[in-house]
Amino acid sequence: MTINVLQDLFADGGLPFTLVDLLLFAGIALIAIGVIKVMLHIAKKIRCSAQTTGTIIDVESFSQHEYRPRPVKGYRDIQGTETYTPMFEFFVDGQPYKVKWRGYANQNRFRIGMQDTIMYNPRNPKDCFAKSSGWASLHAYFVLGVVLLIAARLLQMIAVQL
């Protein structure tokens, strides 16, 4: 039955090309977004050439079903739909700075009192990032883009065979 439905969908030859085009466009767009994000990340790494030690002073927990942050006191082991973002405090020339990390973690790897190296822009210390923040989200755009390009090619091959 499933094969008959696919044959009916691909019978006139119109639908697969529209779907393939959509997947190709989405894949190329995600790869382009990934390239832009990597370039912005590299530019930030160049700007933020000074380093200091920052301390996590707060951790906010976000539920996938909520849009308002809930403060988490210390370390809590919450499974499931929670993501976490830390607030760092660091000092530059005796001046305190508090910055919320823009990334989120699916595990509560952040605890109040934990320290991390903070890379900051000497001209504007609020322009900073935690050195431990990785490139994982940047890679996700590339991976998803490549998956969509492969899906487009597979659909194109299926359409030709039918």
What's the overall average pLDDT, rounded? 78
User: How far is the N terminus from the C terminus?
Assistant: 15 Å
Percent of residues in helices comes to 40-55%
Structural class: alpha+beta
Cα shape: elongated
Q: Return residue spans where pLDDT drops below 50 for at least 5 consecutive residues.
A: 65-69, 73-80
Rg on CA atoms, Å: 22 Å
Oligomer: single chain
Share of residues in strands: 25-35%
* Biggest sheet layout: 6 strands, antiparallel
**Individual helix count:** 3
Strand count: 6
The succession of helices and strands, N to C, reads HHEEEEEEH
Tell me about this structure.
There is one protein chain. With 162 residues, this protein is α+β, with helices and mostly antiparallel strands. It has a domain at 45-134. It is 43% helix and 30% strand. It has three helices and six strands, in the order ααββββββα. Strands 1, 2, 3, 4, 5 and 6 form a six-stranded antiparallel beta sheet that branches. A hairpin with a 2-residue loop joins β3 (82-92) and β4. α2 (14-47) runs antiparallel to α3 (136-161). The protein is elongated. The two termini are 15 Å apart. Residues 65-69 and 73-80 have low confidence and may be disordered.
